[in-house]
Design brief:
- By secondary structure, this protein is α/β, with parallel strands linked by helices.
- The chain is about 40% helix and about 15% strand.
- It has 15 helices and 13 strands.
- The strands form 3 sheets. Strands 8, 9, 10, 11, 12 and 13 form a 6-stranded mixed beta sheet that branches. Strands 5-4-3-6-7 form a 5-stranded parallel beta sheet, with no helix packed on it.
């Protein structure tokens, strides 16, 4: 599950969801987040340099020093010890921001919880526009994609590392903490996030959430296409330690190394959990498809619907990056405890 919305709102909205679905769909060709292979890859990336040459760069190194870093897809890249002008191209910009790094260039998405923090950053587009990237004079490009053809082009601009944006948030923060010379900041964030997450689930269990309850996350894609989401973003958050569980059908999707599955509306009776989460789409046709779904007899007869255990989240805000996770820690209890 690797890689990868504005008309430019509508077009970019479609593009953003396309990145998500493409990224999850490519999972079968690379280790899935949470598997032993993925954990090993994350550990290798988080450790960064393991050779004598790589270890010569310490946290207090002066500007201009470099070291070797092995990225997600196996490239050995000479990177700055302390990058100053970073382009991040992917879905989890909030991870960098949580570490105190504001990229000079990014794949812009309107409506994120961190939108104001990146107002001055340049949108380098999708796919990444090499000319725009060059103009920003980056000293590091972080590319959340395993496409080698794109990598070959982008890596001519500046040192470029591939990055698995669909790994767990803890793995991502440690990898970025190492890459950006922010290891302590990463560990501080992880500790605080882990504590806050445990407290949130404890609060929800004390207020009616039963042990072992299941959840499903659905969203409509343009063209009246219904997807159940499984391994990234909101479901990754929900299915964490102490949280909700995937239904048997969703677990099959996860076991197959897939981040999502397109389903017929009729199959919702098999896929829907004790609690249902809807990711509200951005485009008008997907919004209409969502309305039609919620007006359908199939939907109205689902047990979770009858019991009032349906929750709506903005598809952009309920993302998987660190700052969106912080937002979800506040928003999930608000909805579930109403």
């Amino acid at each position: 599950m690797k890689k990868g919305i504005r008309n430019t709102a509508v077009l970019l909205t479609v593009t953003w969801l396309s990145i998500l679905l493409l990224a999850c769909g490519n999972q079968s060709s690379t280790p899935a987040a949470g598997t032993e292979d993925s954990s090993a890859t994350a550990e290798t990336q988080a450790n960064g340099a393991t050779t004598d040459q790589e270890k010569t760069a310490s946290d207090d190194s002066q500007d201009g020093e470099t070291r070797m870093f092995k990225d997600w897809t196996g490239h050995d890249v000479k990177v700055p010890v302390t990058p100053k002008r970073v382009i991040y191209h992917g879905e989890v910009t909030g991870d960098l921001l949580a570490l105190g790094v504001v990229p000079v260039g990014l794949l812009r998405q309107e409506g994120t919880v961190y939108e104001d923090q990146v107002a001055q950053a340049e949108d380098v587009g999708f796919p990444l526009n090499v000319e725009k990237a060059l103009a920003l004079n980056p000293d590091l490009i972080i590319f959340s994609n395993s496409d080698e053809a794109q990598y070959d082009q982008i890596s001519k601009v500046a040192p470029t590392v591939t990055f698995d944006s669909f790994a767990t948030v803890e793995d991502r923060m440690r990898i970025l903490g190492d890459l950006l010379n922010k290891k302590q900041e990463a560990e501080t964030w992880i500790t605080a996030y882990t504590k806050a997450t445990q407290e949130m689930w404890q609060q929800l269990h004390e207020n009616g959430l039963r042990e072992g309850e299941t959840a499903s996350v659905f969203t409509m894609y343009p063209g009246n296409r219904l997807f159940v989401m499984a391994g990234a973003g909101l479901p990754q958050f929900l299915y964490g330690k102490d949280g909700l569980k995937p239904t048997a059908e969703i677990q099959k999707v996860l076991d197959e190394g897939m981040g999502f599955a397109e389903i017929a509306a009729e199959k919702m009776t098999e896929v829907a959990g004790d609690r249902i989460f809807i990711l509200d789409p951005e485009t008008d046709d997907a919004k209409q498809s969502t309305k039609d779904l919620l007006d359908s007899t199939i939907w109205k007869n689902l047990p979770a619907v009858k019991e009032g255990k349906v929750y709506h989240f903005d598809i952009v805000k309920a993302s998987g990056d660190a700052l969106s996770r912080e937002w979800l820690l506040q928003e999930l209890p608000k909805q579930m405890m109403q």
